[in-house]
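I have been asked to look over a protein record a colleague put together. Alongside the sequence sits a line of tokens, each denoting a local backbone shape. I have pasted the whole thing underneath without changing anything:
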Amino acid sequence: MNSNGQVSLEFLLLLAGFFSVLAIIIPASINLFEVSIFALDARNASIFSEQLSSAIEELSILEDGSMKTLFLNPLLEWRIVSQNNKIVIEVIDEKIGKQKSFLFESNENLSEFNENFSSKSRIIVEKVDGVISVKNG
């Protein structure tokens, strides 16, 4: 009978050790997941920034009334601001308290724009009267 009690005690100690390790690993893996999502979305924002810059350059040589449609699918919150011929795309993750910005300047006359996006959206870039505008489509 004594050996059964010792086996049960050893099993409980192993089980307690296992749950202790889980208690340490799970929070770390959740933080790693959040940081990975932020890095992935920052990369997506960088690619979108290049697409938006390219669309503005293309429209600069086209006639008034020309437009391009771009699609974005942020995983986190994105803020797109156009002001003084500069466009800033920010990726914001409030859970981990990080923010990443992508800035590009244009020689073209850009209208002002300030929008937040947190789901799949469409952006319309249009040239009207020599001014390139970015609109939420």
Remarks:
- Residues 105 and 137 are 22 Å apart (CA to CA).
- Strands lie at 67-72, 77-83, 86-93, 98-105, 113-117, 121-128, 131-136.
- The radius of gyration is 25 Å.
